[in-house]
Specification:
Length: 277
């Protein structure tokens, strides 16, 4: 990391990424724009080189592209917002900071890349949690800590951490508070995350119908193509659905199994007690 980046991050309160990391972080925007990109090419054929052989008019092509452009703009602002630092004002010693880091590293298996008087950076590896891993950055700014966790921009592009970004930051801050209060490390019994909270239900009520729409649209474009470009757009639409559905269903199944295990252990213990009684 370049030394001047730390000053830039302190001034802007926003995470600074390399060019390759920025491309990875905003790849979802480029991927979505891939579909209206075909429309732009068709418009180029209509108005510039006069070689368009499709059946849709220019107005129809533009009306088809608008939803994708709006979706891309929405994801751009979502990804840009994720680069903001969480600002926390706290007094701490270097020893307290190190101990809080050690506790969090042990708990989440963070892999430390950088740790000095100005900045700390680590990565949480992929471990079958639905996320490819996250990059955690903590900048020390006098009596403030600037904290950020995003999906690891050095790995396959991802837009969902399944709660791990928030968990990384919250766990470190909790550990720092515990260290300041001289609370010893306690064995943590991890509770399975609930997959049917109100927030997640609302998200799925919108996401699943939209996925069905994309499946139908993608299938229509593949089996009733105007040209090869519309087939490519159909494959792209179904690819977006496949990635989202796979990761979401994997988390539902994983947490369902985790919730069932304590119930089985409880039933087993109850059976043993009845046997001895």
């Amino acid at each position: 990391m370049k030394k001047e980046w730390i000053d830039i991050m302190k001034q802007t309160k926003r995470l600074k990424l390399s060019r390759c990391q920025t491309l990875d972080h905003f790849f979802i925007v480029i991927f979505i724009l891939f579909i209206p990109g075909f429309t732009l090419f068709n418009l180029f054929e209509i108005y510039v080189i006069d070689s368009y052989n499709g059946v849709k008019t220019a107005d129809e092509l533009i009306s088809t592209a608008w939803p994708w452009i709006i979706l891309a703009i929405a994801f751009y602002f979502i990804q840009k917002r994720r680069l903001r630092f969480k600002e926390v004002t706290v007094n701490y010693s270097d020893q307290e900071f190190r101990e809080a880091i050690e506790r969090t590293v042990k708990e989440y298996e963070w892999q430390i890349e950088l740790n000095n008087q100005n900045i700390f950076r680590a990565y949480r590896p992929w471990n079958w949690t639905g996320s490819w891993g996250e990059m955690i950055t903590i900048v020390k700014d006098n009596d403030q800590l600037l904290l950020n966790s995003i999906c690891d921009p050095n790995k396959m592009s991802s837009i969902a951490s399944f709660g791990w970004n928030k968990r990384n930051i919250d766990t470190f801050l909790k550990n720092l508070v515990d260290v300041k209060k001289d609370i010893p490390v306690q064995e943590k019994i991890e509770k399975p995350e609930k997959e049917w909270t109100l927030r997640k239900v609302v998200i799925r009520l919108f996401a699943y119908p939209f996925c069905l729409f994309l499946i139908g649209l993608g299938a229509y474009m593949i089996f009733n193509p105007v040209n090869w470009k519309s087939q490519g757009a159909g494959v792209g639409a179904m690819g977006i659905v496949a990635i989202y559905m796979y990761t979401d269903l994997k988390m539902i199944i994983k947490n369902k199994s985790a919730n069932a295990k304590p119930e089985n252990d409880s039933s087993h213990a109850e059976g043993k007690n009845n046997k001895y009684n």
